[in-house]
């Protein structure tokens, strides 16, 4: 067998093996990029978001943050992934918002996050996280941005 033919066969085999490794790596990357929805199960937007993901055949996890509160560190991480200040995630029509007079308040970002952890009714929902990105899925169709 001449050298050119041997080289071509070897090159072809290496290309095949590299494409297999790439496919395997892509599968692995997809597997670790899980989707998590932070929600209240009775919320209409949360149910709509879940329905869109189910229809698309996407696996996801849900966290009812009324049962499993979002820790302060995680809430800060989610806000950073959304590129959103804490005030942008507030539910301004909730009684607790008015009770705490947050509209007039000049409290710090950190204090605001503490209040959100303590009073989950203050947090807009659903928050959808995938890898290094998170969105507030309001309206529910925004979920397509993260798929």
The structure class reads alpha+beta
**What characteristic shape results from the CA principal axes?**
globular
Distance between the termini: 50 Å
The low-pLDDT segments are 14-24
Q: Helix and strand string, N-terminal first?
A: HEHEHHHEE
Oligomer: single chain
By DSSP, the count of extended strands is: 4
Q: What is the helix content?
A: 40-55%
Taking strands numbered 1, 2, ... along the chain, how are they ordered across the largest sheet?
2-1-3-4
Q: Roughly what fraction of the amino acids lie in strands?
A: 5-15%
Give the count of helical stretches: 5
Please give the radius of gyration in angstroms: 22 Å
Task: Summarize the biggest pleated sheet.
Answer: 4 strands, mixed
Determine the mean pLDDT.
Answer: 86
